[in-house]
Amino acid sequence: MPKFEFPPSIRSRPVYGTLEARPGKHHLMVADADGAEAILDVATPELMAKTHIIYIPKGAVFTDKLRALKPAQFYEGPSYAASLQRIRHVLQNAHMGLQIYLAGTEGLMGQAQNEAMQAGYPHTAIQTEHRGSIARRMQCVHCKGITEDVETDPFVCAHCGLNLFVRDHYSRRLAAYQGVCIDAEDPGNVPEAKGIYE
Amino acid sequence: MTLQFNDETFRDDYSFHNSQRAIDRFPFPFHEDSYMYSVNMEQHRGGPADSVYEKRFDVDEHYVAEMRDRAMVLADDPLRCQCLPHMTLAGWDLLELIMVSKSEDYPDLFELHRDGDTWRWVNKPMGIDDTFTFMDETTLPYGPMEYITRQAQGDFCVLDQRDENLWMDAGMITTQADWSLDFDIGMNFFEWHAPVPLAHEKGIFVRALKFLLNIQQGAPARRLNWTMTVNPLLDTSPENYHKWGIQKTSLTPENIGSKQHLRVELQTFFRLPRSNALVFPIRCYLCSFQDLMTKPKWGRRLHRVIRDLPDELATYKGFIDNRPMMLDYLSQFDDGLPTSLGVFADTDTEPPLQK
Residue A1's pLDDT is what? Predict the structure, then answer.
């Protein structure tokens, strides 16, 4: 699947790169769905011998290919929430020299990056590569509820039901973009929803 | 006590009002007949007698009512005050700065008695008389930043300085011009300013950051910023925008003079001694159009500034839809005469309205 080229945006919006193997004693790779392809691209036998892969397929079929890389440890999680305790465990028990690689959707990378930051890793030291869905993880600024995998702008908050427009303003701490009521000054006047980058 | 505190509200019936003194000392933000972003910094070392620039932390007739409003906002939404764990020391620095400044600048209103680490703080307008141990959080009812900023007008951003950047790592934000501390906490200087149009391209933030990183102890700085608010509403937060946004549509040609307020932020910047953090108080002053129009120079100038403001800024500041009605009103107070330079109203020398 070709990589999506994000249009230029404001300074709080994350910028993703391309994973590269860096020197390290241990390597933690967390990916979802098409993020597996970024791992497949960077994998070498030497790297995989020291790598712990945590993969959330979300319906994609890369598990066998990832296992075939013979990583030192491999876990397939049914959801991010199910994988979270294992991610925390790895981060809390890590030693100096751990390299962190995140790949896949923005929601996955943002949440895993936040866990790593809370464990003391500077966000600038964490590699990321976007692959797959361009849906966003959105926070409603009004009720604070998170709506996952938002693909259209505007969208309806899954919690309070307000019509929200999708901002590019992004919080690493919340791992979410900001959604703000679009019809506060003219209730009911909600433009037709379209794809976020259309 | 020399200062009389207004019994007034910033919500519901909006009984907020400015006395003649408050109008006279209103920090009108435009030093010329046009406006564009700039790094408009100057030293914060006093100013004309009785102006809002005179004291380190201005205390005015709205003090008690503003603190009452802040307590209501915090009761509804405690996330308006947050402090990341590494910022507690900066909170003590801020508590000391405000207590020392206010007790020195307003000895009839505030007293600070220090005996080693045992401090007694007396806040007469709010009826507070607390004794606590400096640097011991367990001796205060709140963390140090929250404790003192529940007693100080204006919002407070407490910025950590590292990696050649400033980080929004603590704050008390209840009178904000539509930005969310809960969303922005932990961001660096460029990130929390990301939504501001035009200024990045003009290099404003790069220059401003360079200036701020070099602010030294004892040499605070200040600047003014401004926006527009319908009704004297302090809590123009994004959190509550779905509730207050509709008020922008309540303007009519008949009520615009009393309902439309120019909202001015006196922003100051102080280096804090122990933490090396930077505290960035954002003090909000509100003045209705009709009160501003009592100063002929401000009437002339406000019309010209609003008329010529780029659309991007009118949109960002949230009044593009109301601009035509504002101009209809303001044009009545612009007779085309030249205006004197500088922000002050110069009522003794500026001619009265010639129409």
Answer: 67
Specify whether the CB–CB gap between B81 and B172 falls below 8 A.
Answer: yes
- Determine, yes or no, domain membership for A13: no
- Condensed to tens digits (0 to 9), the pLDDT of residues B321-355 reads 999 999 999 999 999 999 999 999 999 999 999 98
Q: Domain residues for A149?
A: 136-195
Sign for the pseudo-dihedral over CA of A79, A81, A82, A83: positive
Residue of B183, B204, B243, B321 best to disrupt the A interface, most CBs of A under 10 A: B183
Nearest CB neighbour to B241, from listed A167, A169, A184: A184
SS3 category, A64? helix
Please report, for the domain that includes residue A104, its CATH number. Answer: 3.40.50.80
* pLDDT tens, position by position, B103-138: 999 999 999 999 999 999 999 999 999 999 999 999
The pLDDT tens digits of the residues spanning A155-191 come to 999 999 999 999 999 999 999 999 999 999 999 999 9
Catalytic residues of B: 223
Give chain A positions within 8 Å (CB) of B78.
none
Across the interface, whether the CB atoms of B194 and A184 are under 8 A apart is answered no
- Residue A11 belongs to a domain: no
The ipTM value here is 0.92
Nearest CA in chain B to A142: B239
CB contact A114 to B (< 8 Å): no
Contact across the interface for B183 and A178, Cβ inside 8 Å: yes
pLDDT > 60? residue B266: yes
Residues A115 and A141 grouped into a single domain = no
B232 falls within a domain:
yes
* A72, A116, B25, B147, B175 from B181: Cα distances, Å: 42, 22, 29, 18, 11
**Is residue A86 situated within a structural domain?**
yes
